[in-house]
C-alpha cells in the first residue's frame, strides 16, 4: 500500500490559501492524491498527471519520470515521450538537481534516437552531457558519451561516433 501525504495549506482568518478554496481547479487534483493501493508503476501515470495539474513540481517530476520509464519498458515510445516532456518541465519548475534532470534528458534522448529522430535526440543528449559535466561521478558522463557515440554512428557519422566512444572509454 502506498501512502501519499500532502501537507495542508494554512488557512487564513477569512479565506483558504490559494489552490485550496472550494471549487478551485487545483483542489480537484489534490483530492485524488490520497492513499492509494497498487504497485507504484501501475499508478505512476495517474499520479504524474494529478501532481502535475496540482503544480506539485517535485512529485510531478518524480512520478512522470517513473511513468516514462514504465512506458518505455512496455515499448510505448510515444507515451514515454509525453511523460518525459512532463518530467523535464516539472523538474525545471522544481529546480531539481542537474543529475536528476540529466537522467530525464538522457532517457528522452534515447527514445528519440530509437525513433530515428536525430535532432531532438542530439539536443537532449547534449543537454544531458552538459549536466553530467558537473557531476563527480564519471559513470553518468561516460554513459551519455556512449549514447552520443551510438547516435552519431546511427546517423552514419562513424568518425564522430568513434570520438564520443573513445572519450567515454578514457573516463
Q: Summarize the biggest pleated sheet.
A: none
Beta-strand percentage?
under 5%
Derived from helix and strand composition plus strand pairing, the structural class reads: mainly alpha
Determine the N-to-C terminus distance.
42 Å
**Pattern of helices and strands:** HHHHHHHH
Number of strands: 0
Number of helices: 8
The helix content, as a percent range, equals 55-70%
- The Cα radius of gyration reads 19 Å
Low-pLDDT regions: 1-20, 33-38
Give the overall shape, derived from the CA principal axes.
globular
Average pLDDT, rounded to a whole number, is 83
How would you describe this structure to a colleague?
The chain has 171 residues and is mostly helical. Helix content is 70%, strand content 0%. Helix 3 packs antiparallel against helix 4 and helix 5 (98-114) runs antiparallel to helix 6. The longest helix is centred in the middle third of the chain and has 18 residues, at 77-94. The termini are far apart. Residues 1-20 and 33-38 have low confidence and may be disordered.
Question: Could you give a short description of this structure?
Answer:
The protein is 70% helix and 0% strand. It is mainly α and 171 residues long.
List keywords for this structure.
disordered N terminus, single chain, 0% strand, 171 residues, 70% helix, mainly alpha
List the helices and strands and how they pair.
Layout lengths: L24 H8 L7 H14 L3 H17 L3 H18 L3 H17 L3 H15 L5 H17 L3 H13 L1
Helix pairs in contact: 1-2, 2-3, 3-4, 4-5, 5-6, 5-7, 6-7, 7-8
